[in-house]
Amino acid sequence: MERAPAVGGPATATGGFASRVMLITDTSAETPVDEIGRIYGDVGLGRFHLSLTKPVERGDYLTVEDELHGAVLCQLDDLRRKSDLDIEHADLLGHGTDTPIHQNLLGVARVVGYRDGQGLVKLPTIPFRPGAKVFLAEEPLIADVLGLKHRGNVGAYVGLLRNHSLRIELDINQLVQRHVSVLAKTGGGKSYLLGVLIEELLRHKVTCLIIDPHGEYGSLRRPAEANGVHARFHVEAQGFAQQIQEFSPDVSLNPTAKPLTFSLRNIEPRDLLVFMGLTNVKSFLAPLKSILEAVAATHPDFTVKDLVHAAEGGEGAIAETLHERLEYLEQTKLLGPQGTSLAELVQKGKATLINLRGVAPDVQELVVARIASTLFDNRKKGKIPPLFLVIEEAHNYAPQQGTATCSRILKNIASEGRKFGLGLCCVTQRAARIDKSVLSQCNTQLILQVTNPLDLKAIAQSIEGLTEGMTEMIQSLPVGVALVTGGGYHTPLFCEVRPRATRHGGESVPIVENN
Question: What distance in Å separates the CA atoms of residue 36 and residue 56, rounded to the nearest whole number?
C-alpha cells in the first residue's frame, strides 16, 4: 500500500482497547520544534498536501518558505487520518489481539499568499517543493498578510481571529456601501453578533434604523451585567441609552416605544397603494386618485374613514377591491392626520428601533415598505444623513418565493442603495428563503453555525472564495465563532465574537426553571 511519511509523536487511540494498539512511526529524523509537517505528492499553485508530525486544527494558519518570496501564509483546509487497518485486523483488536497500525495524519492546505513590495497580497508563481517544511505561522505574518490592523475611525471591532489575539475590525465604510448579511441557524447567535455590530456603529456615531420584529434590541440601552473589562477581548460594559430611540405601531404592547404613524395628507397615491397592499399600479392608480380628489374637495382634513365612505357603492371589481383594501387600511391605524416626522425617525448618530413585537405580519410588511421607501427617496435627495438599514428576519420581508409588500423596495435598496449611502443589513436564520438577488448584493457576510443543507447551498452560491472545507466547518462552528467574509478583508476569516458591552435581549425563554 502506498503511504505518505508516517506520523511522529505519542500514540493515542479511542475506545476500550487503547492499550492494545501499536502505533508504528518514522523516527529516523529529528525535526525542529516549530516544524509541524512536510509537503508531499503533487503540488499545485493554490493548494498542497502535507503529512503532519504535530497536532493542528483545521483552519490553523501555516507558513512555507518560498524560494522567491520568503514566508508565504497558508491555511489548513482539511484533515484526515490514513491507516492500513482493515476490517479483519480491526476485528482482531476487538478480541484482544495486538495489531500494528501504520497511520498518517494528512492535511490539505490553501495558499493565502504574501505581501509584495507594494503591499499587495499575491500568490507564488512557482509551486512549493515536495518535502518542504511546513511551520505554524506566527502572528506578525498572519496580521500582515490578512490585513489585521487597527482601522481607527472606520474600524468596527467584532472579535479576535480564532485561536489568536489579533483583532478583527470591519471597515464601516464598506459595511454601509456594500451591504451586510448575518446568517445563522435558530439559536446560532445572530442577534448577539448583530448587537455587537450595532454597538460598534453607535460608538462611531453611524446613523442606523433597525427593523426589530421581536423587540429585542432595546437592551442596547443598558450595560452588560458583567461589569469591568473582559481580559482577553478588552471590552468594557457600556450602555447607549442616549443614542437609542424606539417607535412602534402598537405602543400598548410595546410601552417603551413612541407611537409610529404615517401622515395621510403627505402620502402620494402610489405610496397609498403600497399601504393598501396593491401592486398593480396601472389598474388602481387612476380610480384611487379620483377618490382622493373628491374627498379632498369637501373634507380638507380627511381621514381614511372618509376614503372608505367615498369608495362605497363603486361598481366593478376594481372599485370593490379599492373599498375592501381601504377598509383594511383603516383598521391598521397606521395613517393619521399627523404622522411621525422624518426628522424624528432619522437622527444623525443615533439608532432608531422600529419595534414590531406583536404586530400582525401583514401590517409589519406595510410598515417596512413605507419606511424603506421613505429612507431611499430622501437619501437620494440628500435630505437625511447616510445610514444603515438593518432588517431582522429578512426572509419574511424579501422572500425568495411568494410575495411581500416590501419586497420590491428592499431589492431596489440592495441593488442601488450603495450609490446613495444607504446600507442594508439582512439578518436571517434561513438563507435559502431570502431573495437571492438581495443576498448576493451583500458583500460582507457574518456567518455563524448553519446546518440546513439548503441554507448551506445558498451561502456557498452567494460567497466568493468560500472553500469546500470552510463550508463543512460552518456546520460545526461552536457558539460564538463566526466566519467573516468581506468587510475590508480579502480572504474569509474565522472570528471569535467579542462579548457584548450591552445586555443581550435575545435570550430564549426558559420553559422549566432550574432550581
Answer: 8
